[in-house]
Amino acid sequence: MSSLSGIGGRLYRGETSIDFIGKRRRWYAFSGILIIVSAIVLGTQGLHLGIEFKGGSEFSITKAGSTVEEGRAAIAAAGVTGESVVQKIGNDRLRIQTGALASFETVKASLAKTFGVNVDDIDTQIIGPSWGKEITKKALYGLIGFILVVMLFLTVAFESKMALAAIVATIHDVFITVGIYALVGFDVTPATVIGFLTILGYSLYDTVVVFDKVRENTKSITSTGKITYSAAANLAVNQTLVRSFNTSLIALLPVASILFVGAGLLGAGTLKDLSLALFVGLATGTYSSIFIATPILAQLREREPAMRALSKRVAQHAPGAVTLEAKSSMNVTGADAGSSTKNAWARGPRNQPKRKRR
Amino acid sequence: MSALNNSQSTKAAKTSAKSAKSIAILAVVLIAFSAVAVIQGATKIKLGLDLRGGTSVTLTPRASEGSKVTTEAIDQAVAIIRQRVNSLGVAESEVAAQGSGTNRQIVISVPGQTGEKIVQLVGQTAELRFRQVLVEGAPNATSASSDTKTATLPTGVTPELNAKYVALDCTKLENRKGGSTESPDVAVVSCDRAGTTKYILAPAKVVGSNVSKASAAIDQQGAAGWYVLLAFNGEGTSKFGALTTAVTGLAAPQNQVAIVLDGLVVSAPRINEAINGGSAQITGNFSQEEASNLANVLKYGALPLAFDQGEVLQVSPTLGADQLHAGLLAGLLGFLLVFLYSFMYYKGLGIVTVASLLIAAAIAYLSFLLLGEWIGFTLTLAGIAGAIVAVGITADSFVVFFERLRDEVREGRSLRSAVETGWVKARHTIIVADTVSMIAAVLLYFFAVGGVRGFAFTLGLTTLIDLLVVFVFTHPLVALLARISFFANGHKYSGFSAKSLGVVIKTDGLERLKG
């Protein structure tokens, strides 16, 4: 643990620096492949939708010693035809999913008889055929509304380019999370969708933390003329790396405990669906705020004439600053920002934005 | 230099006084609210149906030719459904519209084991029509074609209507869904409820609004079993009299009057003589429960809209208890893991995380109690999940603050001044990040239906609590701790030791650069 703290100190001063921004093409390519794979899997396999989206009925019976065969026999006796799934959850719970039913009361009566339980003790969920469309529509509205409002807010709180970069990273997260769901075949239920939307908020939380530091580091770079926007942004990512790691891990711990308890004790259900979506999303969210959001922001800002001029100035000014031999540093090779950023990887206290000292 | 130190120390004294005051005020407010909770008798958090067992039904309005979905219509429907649900006499039943404008669902929650009764009770439109039977036949699509094709069509039956009638297959379930709100002024084709007969029916002469009273009754002789007794108002009495007079003496099946409920024929009795007494009976092999349900829905009037059953959720108390248990366990585990990590990483500073989280949890608990009393807030499983997720997000605010603090110390500041400069910077990050969380929670709340709304609500609430705790508790507490030498001098276990911050190599970097 304390060694991580030590790394934090080195990262903060820029002695150990990981080149997130210069190597952006690598991350973009990696994410690009993930997104393409997601799209392919989504197109071929599709999402495994829960009955909330398809319509149908779900019954669950809590009775020690109940078997899947008994369950099948009971629904067959009730005259249920078509697709049905009978699952054993934990030791004593049996879950039965069927399509639309003529009368769910008949099925419940048959189940109650087979398993010797009270009809009212059978947990039931009946989903109408139009329900899925309704909640899909709402989720989409929620997603679009969220992106618009957050973009507006970040533009006001930070700047429009940060808002754009943050949103691109968020959309990236949604794509990859959906892709993972399609690939693994996790059930998608309304709880999953809510989990998704929550991650959007959380993924942005992470990005906000990094961007806030970027903003601080780049506040006066044009007047000092010692460091390019990309380099200052890269320093910010490195400086907040430990923070990002800690916030993500701490956010993940409670989610993991919900997942653990939800899946372990209750089997399928709200808790499991929700926390699984959060778990997958948190991971991609942390990745994207470091590897995607900040490089995009740097790229957007480097296009500005003022920043280009700055890059040139820095390149002329400090040719010696490049010769750094910090162990974990990686030098830029062939980044498309060209020579301007190449020489800008100045590290060490000398090249940090000026701070007031006492 | 010494002047600077002086001003610094008086400033520090001021901050610590301010900090102590802030924590004291928080304590007083917390105690005050606890007292309010006790006085108001809010000693237990209200639990949602998924945690204590019960039935919830979500209805989605269905647009049809006869009726448009309007805000007024939904409000009216909520009021009528509420009356129906209240007639069950189950305490703490709830009927509410969720969502906004015309894009709303009606959510009905009834605790305890009411089973299917509630589902039938609330879903029915209860559109009652009395229509003369024009044609009656077997339910299948093809069988009826022969006898009506060759014969001349009865009066009132158009060829189109006949074609519809021929095509109608009442043995198919989807044709017996009912709930359609067709206009009373046109002739229709219809199935009976059991799917054994199909009809062509004349325009309705008497409708549900002509009924003034409805009650369930039993035929003492036992012939008809349970039936529903209707009493008409003045207009209804004369109209029903006229209808029954008109059909008496006609040839079968046109001497029958069909009683149509929600588009399906409940019964179609033969009328032997004109009925001018202003009352009628609906018979149909009802059980006592069915008869009283039907009487209830007729009494409170028809819904202005037809509804689709979106979702029916029935949770037994056993599963409810299991879910509550699991939720609490997950919460406890989540807390413990976060505590553990905080202590491992931040050492002594972990105390602040633990204390802040406990305060946040206390405020959250108190809010759940009071909001349950004030606005009827109920805690659902999704709500518990939201609160647990919030543990992480709340702790994140502390991490942001702590890391800023450590950065400032790395810059060479004393811990005491680092608390202030670090706080100013961390504050901005925390506010922006929490605002984004808040936006997410508010939007989720408006775009979600049913249980998941609880998630959005607790997430939003706990984000606010997070802000409150960081401002009035965490920051003041750290400011106070910074005066203790254990922290200020960077003790090995304080979380501010030079080693853990890695501050030793300050000049080292420069040397290397020069070399």
How does the SSE layout of this entry go?
The complex is a heterodimer of chains A (358) and B (515).
Chain A: H1 2-13, H2 24-44, E1 48-49, H3 51-54, E2 56-62, H4 68-77, E3 84-89, E4 93-98, H5 104-115, E5 123-127, H6 131-157, H7 160-184, E6 187-188, H8 190-218, H9 221-224, H10 229-239, H11 241-266, H12 270-302, H13 305-317, H14 339-342
Parallel strand pairs in A: 1-6
Antiparallel strand pairs in A: 2-4, 2-5, 3-4
Helix pairs in contact in A: 1-10, 2-7, 2-12, 4-5, 6-7, 6-8, 7-8, 7-12, 8-10, 8-12, 10-12, 11-12
Chain B: H1 2-39, H2 49-52, E1 54-62, H3 71-86, E2 94-100, E3 103-111, H4 116-123, E4 128-137, H5 145-150, H6 159-167, E5 188-191, E6 198-207, E7 211-218, E8 226-232, H7 234-247, E9 257-261, E10 264-267, E11 279-286, H8 288-299, E12 306-315, H9 317-346, H10 350-375, H11 381-410, H12 415-447, H13 451-481, H14 485-488, H15 498-501, H16 506-514
Helix pairs in contact in B: 1-10, 1-13, 4-8, 9-10, 9-11, 10-11, 10-13, 11-12, 11-13, 12-13
Residue runs with pLDDT of under 50 for 5 or more positions of chain A: 320-358
- What is the highest CATH level, the class of the largest domain in chain A? Mainly Alpha
Order the strands across the largest sheet of chain B as they lie in space. 5-6-4-9-10
How does CATH name the architecture of the largest domain in chain A?
Up-down Bundle
Give the overall pLDDT of chain B as a whole number: 81
- The number of E-state strands of chain A comes to 6
Termini Cα gap of chain B: 34 Å
Q: Based on the structure given, which CATH architecture of the largest domain in chain B is correct?
A: Up-down Bundle
Largest β-sheet summary of chain B: 5 strands, antiparallel
Order of helices and strands of chain B: HHEHEEHEHHEEEEHEEEHEHHHHHHHH
> Per DSSP, what share of the residues of chain B sits in E-state strands of 2 or more residues?
15-25%
Q: What count of structural domains of chain B?
A: 3
Can you tell me the CATH topology of the largest domain in chain B?
A: Multidrug efflux transporter AcrB transmembrane fold
What's the SSE pattern of chain A?
A: HHEHEHEEHEHHEHHHHHHH
Oligomer: heterodimer
- Compute the CA-based radius of gyration of chain B: 35 Å
Give the number of helices of chain B. 16
